[in-house]
Design brief:
Length: 130
């Protein structure tokens, strides 16, 4: 299974929609994330359906009005459960359906503020095993 990540720096451009669709299909990605989408909350459903109508999406708009992180997956290939979410991270558990292999993933888009970076560090440490 191929996993992908793209700091897209704006996902409102139809050219980026085409690039993303091509990349996902070409690489057969079943799980991927997008950061710095710059898509407004009111437009997220429309943009995500224009992008990939057969994928499931998870966003962090409840924590960031800019929706800085999107997690996307093919529900026919993987099952995704949310472990936690903030303005700088989405933590998920991913199970590959064909093999029952599971892994945890943290998708991070760090803020430049020192105090917010400390909050992110604490969040990550609290989720670690050791």
């Amino acid at each position: 299974m191929i996993i992908g990540c793209w700091n897209v720096r704006g996902l409102n451009d139809p050219i980026k929609h085409s690039e993303l669709r091509r990349l996902i299909h070409q690489e057969r990605m079943a799980f991927f994330d997008l950061v710095e989408t710059r898509v407004r909350d009111r437009n997220k459903d429309n943009v995500s359906q224009l992008l990939l109508h057969n994928c499931s999406f998870l966003y962090n708009y409840d924590f960031s009005c800019r929706g800085r992180i999107w997690v996307c997956w093919n529900a026919d290939v993987v099952k995704v459960d949310v472990l936690g979410m903030s303005d700088q991270a989405i933590h998920v558990s991913v199970m590959i359906l064909a093999t029952d292999v599971c892994f945890n993933a943290s998708i991070i888009y760090r803020d430049n503020s020192a105090s917010l970076c400390e909050a992110l560090r604490s969040d990550i440490v609290s989720r670690s095993d050791g």
